[in-house]
Amino acid sequence: MRFDILTLFPEFFTSPLTTSLLGKALDNGIAEVHLTNPRDFTTDKHHRVDDEVYGGGVGMLMKPEPIFAAVESLPCLPRRQIVLFTPQGQPMDQPLFHNLAHEYDQLVLICGHYEGVDERVAEHLVTQELSLGDFVLTCGEIPALTLLNGVIRLRPGTVGKVESLKKESFETDLLDYPQYTRPAEFRGWTVPPVLRSGNHAHIEQWRQEQQVQRTRDRRPDLYAKWLQKSHPPSES
């Protein structure tokens, strides 16, 4: 799978792309990441990528020409999605990551700066607008790195135990259950006895109960979604 990241700050990705599971996945050829700087596609002597907003307003806006030129310089794989990170975009979630990981061969990620990008980029170039959440950041590199990590870890070969991916938070609209390791007692806090019982049926039941309880307490929105799916209303 190919990722093309359009960024004014390629050095932002230097460490994340060479460490942990992400770095191993790239070394093993599970995915490849290419960094392209729109500034390299400017035509003026000052290499400007931003300009004032028509109609007035505070801040600068990224110009369309360098972005279009940068994207058009890239190879185009058959199943390609061009993503723009913007607060107005669809919030990223686990189902979206699954879709991107398995339905596309190439993701082009446009990292905005300043007050964002010229609207013509969104209207005539971008195929999907995404957001990290209901807040504003200083740059698009942060959500781009989030998407990169979330998608690549779902690709075959990235995570050693595939079964572990199926039991994570959000995979079934439920949060994960509490987990413990040694020592069995730490500062007077003990591991729940059921987890040390060796009774796998009881352990599984406890974990499922904890998932439901934790989701109900912490994310009532997810709990309502899970409840609707697992206990659909009967037809009258």
Descriptive report:
The chain has 236 residues and is of the alpha/beta class. The protein has two domains: 2-152, Alpha/beta knot (3-Layer(aba) Sandwich); 172-230, Trp Operon Repressor, Chain A. 34% of the residues lie in helices and 17% in strands. The chain is built from eight helices and nine strands. The chain has helices at 20-27, 64-72, 94-103, 119-124, 141-152, 162-166, 200-218, 220-230, and strands at 2-6, 32-36, 50-52, 60-62, 80-91, 106-110, 128-131, 185-186, 189-190. Strands 2-1-6-5-7 form a five-stranded parallel beta sheet, sandwiched between helices. Helix 1 (20-27) links the parallel strand 1 (2-6) and strand 2. Helix 3 (94-103) packs across helix 5 and helix 7 (200-218) packs across helix 8 (220-230). The N and C termini lie far apart (48 Å). The mean pLDDT is 93.
Would you summarize the structure shown here?
This protein is α/β, with parallel strands linked by helices and 236 residues long. The protein has helices at residues 20-27, 64-72, 94-103, 119-124, 141-152, 162-166, 200-218, 220-230, and strands at 2-6, 32-36, 50-52, 60-62, 80-91, 106-110, 128-131, 185-186, 189-190.
